[in-house]
Amino acid sequence: MYNDTIQQGVGNQSTNNSCDKNDGFKYPLYSTIFSIVFVVGLITNVVAMYIFTCSLKLRNETTTYMMNLVVSDLLFVCTLPLRVFYFINQNWPFGSTLCKVSVSLFYTNMYGSMLFLTCISVDRFLAIVYPFRSRALRTKRNAKIVCVAVWVLVLSGSLPTGFLLETTSQEKSKNNSTFCFENFSSNQWKAHLSKVVIFIETVGFIIPLLLNVCCSIMVLHTLRRPQTISRGGKLNKTKILRMIVVHLLIFCFCFIPYNVNLVFYALVRTKTLTGCSVESVVRTIYPIALCIAVSNCCFDPIVYYFTSETIQNSFKRKSQVSRTYDAKFSEALQSETSSNLQCSLRTLKAKVFHNESSV
């Protein structure tokens, strides 16, 4: 959840005093990181969407999950310019509805990304560990059903969270700024948001994390079996190992810091954890962890490449077509040059013989 502007006393302090906030660095940090994520995320995901929709002739259940992940990333990336404007000016002039939608899309992207990455991991697990028994289960139709279920689950958690937020004006401010993203009250945390955190942490983070780790371990265990090597030469251990490492690194790097810190942030906001030192640490880590979590939009296309052989083959085909075209063009150029040279020699020879005969 985004930091709030309300300062209240915690621990043994009186209610008239408050802990000193040390998270003022978050505004330039957010505006810088979000700008970079917008540019990189927009370009990479638009390219990925183009490949999925226009270049790939063969689509399977894995690419179905990836296309939904691209949609989730693009929806969130499109809201980043509004966030950058807000964090630079510390004022939200776009109205309450856009504020709520922007917050909702943040959680939709984060937990949608985790769930779709988990779907990809489970799909690869079934394909490698149970290649024959999972054929009836691993279909594009079932993949679409799973994607619909993921969207329903994610939206059921993110929309209520976003629409609990209200844009508020700070009357003591000189320019009467309107705040967004950071004005959940303590009462909202105690009454609603603490329950939302429990739900999204369990369904959106802990379960996907366990599934990703377990599926990866099972795949690695399967690759160690002797009979796996003789499976028609289709399994390349190096590629699969690289795929698993990239997948887990991105998942853990992007999502573990934010979600672990979110638990402590919720405990601080609900006064379960008290003390200015605790609040100071949590508030300092929170913006950094949030920026890392937002960067998943830039890393997801890396997962697409390393996970999908279809995409890799598409790049290889394009590269081969380009090399073939260059080779044919070179051959044609050499042929044309040789032909022109032969024609010039024949002309020169004819002129020589003509001159000799006229002497």
Automatic annotation (TrEMBL):
<dbReference type="Pfam" id="PF00001">
    <property type="entry name" value="7tm_1"/>
</dbReference>
<keyword id="KW-1015">Disulfide bond</keyword>
<feature type="transmembrane region" description="Helical">
    <location>
        <begin position="110"/>
        <end position="133"/>
    </location>
</feature>
<feature type="domain" description="G-protein coupled receptors family 1 profile">
    <location>
        <begin position="44"/>
        <end position="304"/>
    </location>
</feature>
<feature type="transmembrane region" description="Helical">
    <location>
        <begin position="65"/>
        <end position="88"/>
    </location>
</feature>
<keyword id="KW-0812">Transmembrane</keyword>
<dbReference type="GO" id="GO:0035025">
    <property type="term" value="P:positive regulation of Rho protein signal transduction"/>
</dbReference>
<dbReference type="GO" id="GO:0070915">
    <property type="term" value="F:lysophosphatidic acid receptor activity"/>
</dbReference>
<keyword id="KW-0807">Transducer</keyword>
<keyword id="KW-0472">Membrane</keyword>
<feature type="transmembrane region" description="Helical">
    <location>
        <begin position="33"/>
        <end position="53"/>
    </location>
</feature>
<feature type="transmembrane region" description="Helical">
    <location>
        <begin position="196"/>
        <end position="220"/>
    </location>
</feature>
<comment type="similarity">
    <text>Belongs to the G-protein coupled receptor 1 family.</text>
</comment>
<dbReference type="GO" id="GO:0007200">
    <property type="term" value="P:phospholipase C-activating G protein-coupled receptor signaling pathway"/>
</dbReference>
<feature type="transmembrane region" description="Helical">
    <location>
        <begin position="285"/>
        <end position="307"/>
    </location>
</feature>
<keyword id="KW-0391">Immunity</keyword>
<dbReference type="GO" id="GO:0002250">
    <property type="term" value="P:adaptive immune response"/>
</dbReference>
<keyword id="KW-0675">Receptor</keyword>
<keyword id="KW-0297">G-protein coupled receptor</keyword>
<protein>
    <recommendedName>
        <fullName>G-protein coupled receptors family 1 profile domain-containing protein</fullName>
    </recommendedName>
</protein>
<keyword id="KW-0325">Glycoprotein</keyword>
<feature type="transmembrane region" description="Helical">
    <location>
        <begin position="240"/>
        <end position="265"/>
    </location>
</feature>
<feature type="transmembrane region" description="Helical">
    <location>
        <begin position="145"/>
        <end position="165"/>
    </location>
</feature>
<dbReference type="InterPro" id="IPR017452">
    <property type="entry name" value="GPCR_Rhodpsn_7TM"/>
</dbReference>
<keyword id="KW-1133">Transmembrane helix</keyword>
<dbReference type="InterPro" id="IPR000276">
    <property type="entry name" value="GPCR_Rhodpsn"/>
</dbReference>
<keyword id="KW-1064">Adaptive immunity</keyword>
<dbReference type="GO" id="GO:0005886">
    <property type="term" value="C:plasma membrane"/>
</dbReference>
